[in-house]
Design a protein that fits this description.
- This protein has 292 residues and is mainly alpha-helical.
- It contains ten helices and two strands, in the order H-H-H-H-E-E-H-H-H-H-H-H.
- It has one domain: Orthogonal Bundle (ABC transporter involved in vitamin B12 uptake, BtuC).
- 74% of the residues lie in helices and 3% in strands.
- Strand 1 and strand 2 form a beta hairpin.
- The relative contact order is 0.20.
Length: 292
Amino acid sequence: MDYLVAILLPQLLHGLVFGAALGLLALGLTVIFGLLGVMNFAHGELYMLGAYAGIATIGLTQSFWVALIAAPLLVGALGVVTEVTTLRPLYHREPLYGLILTFGLALVFREGARQIWGGEIRRVMPPVTGSTDMLGMTYPNYRLFLLAISSMLLLAIWLFFTKTRAGILVRAAVQDAEMLDGLGVNVPRVFTFSFAGSAALAALAGLLLAPIFTVYPQMGVEMILLAFIVVILGGMGSMGGSVVAAFVIGITQSLLTLWMNPQRVAIAIFGIMILVLIVRPRGFFGREGVLE
């Protein structure tokens, strides 16, 4: 019983917290893949830039809450410029062009951050301090805040895509962009704002996780691997699948760290992905024909 309360339960909560934030990161990746058919290798760097944009805003305003609004807006604006100037000319070319381009963008963003902020590790102080006694244990308040705000954002995103006209247009563009264009909808604008929203979600995840992890130029490389695993497990192009897979990966990784070193945990996560794909080649909720 002591092991359950003192060790297992906190790790389970850690997994839920990390899974919720990972879901925000993976959702943007899923939307862009569904719209453009490109796995955005620069998505991890947008996550990293969100943390650095937050640090810059906190330095100017001394407020984490202002940074929580400013960082996604700044990175979202960068997403608009990136989509219009680099991705848009490649829409009608082979997917390989998009992969190479986003890989190059990742290098540019990473080295740009290193030139501006340096390569040293930085920390962001949590805006919510202290801890709460619950279920016989003490748990940090900021992690509870992170779980709550990430879960509310995931719910808000689901409502956006199911209840609003803009969200329905994005879903329609994922299904058949040519038909939507024939109906008079400005599809390039839908693509641009979707990419900006994806970038903003990545930035938000980066800033929210910054008080838990450290901030450095390579931080996006580690997270993008997990985000890719989430997208593949959830099913390419499936937003609901990405959320489910994010919680599965978050909880699994957190629990496995109790019994394995970090390198073996990474191997185990990839092993789980391989086993799932053997049984369900399209992931949990993948649509037929997405990769064919």
